[in-house]
């Protein structure tokens, strides 16, 4: 065949492509047989601008059956090309679908990882909150124990101060009563005005006005005792 024809094997059958038309070996042989039985005139050439050469081949074959065969071959070729196009489209769609599925799987894994990280972070925060609450509760218990100890110590100190105050009050009262008795006896013996009468009246008045709180009269009582002591000393001096 000429330079514009090529041949290859497909499914144990030799296929010849002429001007873009796929022709089987059987069709080629029939075309050759028809050409040999025709007149001795030269075969027509196939122009370059005819993409398939179907009508020219029909003119060369000059047989209606051969023309139908060529047309069928063309239709078969067209069907094969459509089938290949559909196959390629299906393959392309399958590849695109696989890409979409792969992308969805990546996004799902990413979402799952984010969810896991969020759950772990929430668990860590909850654990930290529990530990802090336990620590604060322990510190509060310690503070309460310390306050109880301080309160007990304060109460003990207050009790000691009250006891000392009572002792001091008892001593002052006893001293006053003793001094008062001594002074009264001396007054009765000498029939004179009592010594330190002003202080005596003031201290008696203070005791009456501050019943149960005689500690406030301790200053007057001290002045009274001092006055009585000085009076005694003045009487015991020679020449008095």
TrEMBL record:
It is a lipid-anchor. PROSITE patterns: CHCH. GO terms for cellular component: MICOS complex. Residues 137-164 form a coiled coil. Keywords: Coiled coil, Disulfide bond, Lipoprotein, Membrane, Mitochondrion, Mitochondrion inner membrane, Myristate. The keyword Nucleotidyltransferase does not apply. Its main location: mitochondrion. This is CHCH domain-containing protein. It comes from Anguilla anguilla. The lineage of its organism: Eukaryota, Metazoa, Chordata, Craniata, Vertebrata.
């Amino acid at each position: 065949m000429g330079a514009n024809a090529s041949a290859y094997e497909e499914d144990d059958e030799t296929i010849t492509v002429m001007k873009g038309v796929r022709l089987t070996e059987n069709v080629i042989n029939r075309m050759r047989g028809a050409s040999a039985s025709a007149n001795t005139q030269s075969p027509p050439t196939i122009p370059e601008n005819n993409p398939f050469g179907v009508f020219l081949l029909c003119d060369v074959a000059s047989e209606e059956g051969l023309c139908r065969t060529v047309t069928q071959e063309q239709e078969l070729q067209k069907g094969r090309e459509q089938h290949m196009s559909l196959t390629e489209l299906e393959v392309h769609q399958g590849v695109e679908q696989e890409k979409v599925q792969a992308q969805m799987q990546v996004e799902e894994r990413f979402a799952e990882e984010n969810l896991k990280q969020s759950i772990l972070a929430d668990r860590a925060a909850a654990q930290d909150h529990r530990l802090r609450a336990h620590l604060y509760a322990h510190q509060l218990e310690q503070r309460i124990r310390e306050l109880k100890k301080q309160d007990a110590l304060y109460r003990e100190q207050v009790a000691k101060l009250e006891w000392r105050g009572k002792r001091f009050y008892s001593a002052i009262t006893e001293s006053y009563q003793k001094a008062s008795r001594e002074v009264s006896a001396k007054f009765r013996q000498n029939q004179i005005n009592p010594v330190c009468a002003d202080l005596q009246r003031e201290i008696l008045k203070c005791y009456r006005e501050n019943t149960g709180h005689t500690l406030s009269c301790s200053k007057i009582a001290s002045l009274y005792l001092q006055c009585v002591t000085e009076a005694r000393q003045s009487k015991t001096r020679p020449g008095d």
